[in-house]
């Protein structure tokens, strides 16, 4: 005979038991209204035995109407206690959630963790004026330094878990790696990941920031990168973009060589494409102009004016007196690529005023007034402005490498046009040179391998054999051709049908590649904004957490999940004021 199961007997609570045995039903279980105890099995015998054993003497003189009134009174008391408990629980969860939200804002704004105490004091003062009856609710929100640090770490861990979970769906991904030094002279290795899933949706996120306290050789870089990639799948790694430094690109012991060896050990079938950051290439090509002698004179002149406070004040007063369009000169920083063009442009526009000011200071201005120098300065000013324009076009998030290549390809075509026009003394695109009425030649931009073009214009015969049949089908499909014209190259890949798997794989690998290390450079700016001379003791773990929160793009912390994990924790006012 099978054993009886209480859950399958469909036993129901009867209303009469409330007055007869002083029981009510709470969350599916019978609960005594007199003592609060619950009975495991819903049977009248169990309820009657409990009542007769423990409470029979209390209500023996009551009639049925009095019993009903007593039961209703006890039920109201129980409900009020439950409501109070739920309210306290919800208030506690709201306080914890509020601390998470404020911790995220503090991290994003590069504020120190101690800002939490300042924010709380402001909240309390506002509460005292607006809603003093709710002061205790604001006091319950813990915003102490330790609490903010803990919340930031929890938010960072949550984002990392989401990224790792998302990474399992990637069919191809690439890395962007760059290295810089923080305020404490600690080398920091920045790593970003760009992955594509089966729907050809692109995810571009911060992967890790690794402090390197010792050497920064190719082997050291590889050890740090491999720790991150081990959480993903080596066989899905298709691209690696670096700044082109020897430790990154060395043929034998560089990071690229080490990763290729590791992929062979892991029996990865794909070939790793190592790419030199397009923005770094553009900056390096700009230095091929051989105009250091012009820039050195400009730099010395600017430093003379800006380095000493008296000279700087007198120069600004001098410009004000002359009623010039610009009232000052900017500094030039070698690391900031765009600053050179701004300094050159301002110096060219104020060349007469600068010479007059230097004459008043007894400085020799022969070089600054030399006609050849002014022509070279005008050309450098114009070509640098064009280089700055392409530099800005190459920057930004979610840039597809094929679009970046198209930008470079267009700039090469422009260079050819400019050279032809300048040989014919047509200076329409060089306003500074037009001012000097001189003609100069320009240098060519280095060639770059095209990675992705118009699939409808590709020569099928010269394409890889595994793509040829699908390319023919694609180029003969009028509907797909119309879709390409409507959405463009970057979005068209998502509309490739499942009957073209090789083209989809090729598109995924190309979409996953980083065209530059712009995100790494941007992260270093965030790092310097957070780890300043006033916060030089910021730990590597906290810095890592702050930067993960600040640089998150498509991922957002799941604060409700974090609050749920913390259970029914409620911070007391005494703890929150520490």
TrEMBL record:
SUPFAM superfamilies attached to this UniProt entry: Ribonuclease H-like
Q: Does the keyword Coiled coil apply?
A: yes
Which stretches make up the SPIN-DOC-like zinc-finger domain?
14-60
- Record carries keyword Coiled coil: yes
Report keywords, A-Z. Answer: Coiled coil
The coiled-coil regions, if any, are 54-81
Name it: SPIN-DOC-like zinc-finger domain-containing protein
């Amino acid at each position: 005979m099978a054993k009886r199961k209480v859950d399958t007997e469909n036993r129901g609570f009867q209303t009469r038991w409330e007055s007869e045995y002083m029981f009510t039903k709470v969350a599916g279980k019978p609960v005594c209204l007199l003592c609060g105890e619950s009975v495991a099995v819903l049977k009248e015998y169990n309820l009657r035995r409990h009542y007769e054993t423990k409470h029979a003497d209390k209500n023996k003189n009551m009639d049925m109407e009095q019993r009903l009134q007593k039961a209703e009174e006890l039920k109201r008391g129980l409900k009020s206690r439950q409501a109070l408990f739920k309210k306290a629980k919800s208030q506690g969860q709201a306080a914890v959630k509020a601390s998470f939200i404020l911790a995220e804002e503090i991290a994003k704004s590069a504020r120190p963790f101690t800002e939490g105490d300042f924010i709380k004091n402001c909240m309390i003062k506002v509460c005292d004026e607006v809603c003093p009856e709710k002061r205790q609710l604001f006091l319950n929100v813990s915003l102490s330094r330790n609490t903010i640090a803990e919340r930031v770490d929890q938010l960072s861990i949550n984002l990392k878990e989401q990224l790792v979970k998302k990474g399992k769906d990637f069919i191809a991904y690439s890395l962007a790696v760059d290295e810089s030094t923080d305020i404490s002279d600690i080398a920091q290795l920045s790593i970003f990941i760009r992955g594509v899933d089966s729907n050809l949706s692109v995810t571009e996120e911060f992967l890790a920031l690794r402090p390197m306290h010792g050497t920064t050789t190719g082997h050291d870089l590889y050890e740090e990168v491999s720790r991150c990639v081990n959480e993903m799948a080596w066989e899905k790694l298709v691209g690696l973009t670096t700044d082109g430094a020897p430790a990154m690109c060395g043929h034998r012991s560089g990071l690229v060589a080490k990763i290729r060896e590791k992929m062979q050990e892991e029996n990865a079938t794909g070939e790793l494409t190592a790419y030199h950051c397009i923005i770094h290439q553009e900056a390096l090509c700009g230095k091929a102009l051989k105009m250091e002698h012009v820039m050195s004179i400009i730099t010395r002149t600017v430093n003379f004016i800006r380095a000493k406070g008296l000279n700087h004040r007198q120069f600004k007063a001098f410009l004000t007196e002359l009623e010039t369009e610009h009232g000052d000169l900017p500094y030039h920083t070698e690391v900031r690529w765009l600053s050179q063009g701004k300094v050159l442009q301002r110096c060219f526009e104020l060349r007469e005023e600068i010479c007059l000011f230097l004459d008043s200071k007894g400085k020799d201005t022969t070089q600054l007034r030399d006609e050849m120098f002014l022509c070279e300065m005008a050309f450098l000013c114009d070509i640098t402005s064009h280089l700055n324009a392409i530099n800005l076009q190459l920057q930004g998030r979610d840039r597809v490498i094929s679009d970046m290549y198209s930008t470079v390809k267009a700039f090469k075509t422009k260079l050819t046009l400019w050279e032809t026009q300048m040989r014919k003394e047509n200076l329409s695109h060089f306003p500074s040179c037009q001012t000097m009425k001189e003609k100069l030649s320009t240098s060519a931009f280095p060639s770059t391998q095209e990675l992705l073009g118009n699939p409808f214009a590709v020569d099928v015969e010269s394409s890889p054999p595994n793509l040829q049949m699908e390319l023919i089908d694609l180029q003969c499909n009028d509907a797909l051709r119309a879709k390409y014209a409507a959405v463009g190259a970057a979005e068209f890949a998502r509309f490739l049908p499942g009957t073209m798997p090789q083209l989809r794989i090729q598109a995924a690998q190309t979409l996953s590649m980083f065209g530059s290390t712009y995100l790494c450079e941007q992260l270093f700016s965030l790092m310097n904004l957070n780890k300043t001379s006033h916060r030089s003791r910021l730990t590597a773990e906290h810095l890592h957490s702050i930067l993960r929160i600040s640089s998150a793009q498509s991922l957002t912390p799941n604060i409700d999940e974090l609050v749920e994990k913390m259970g029914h924790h409620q911070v007391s006012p005494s703890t929150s004021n520490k």
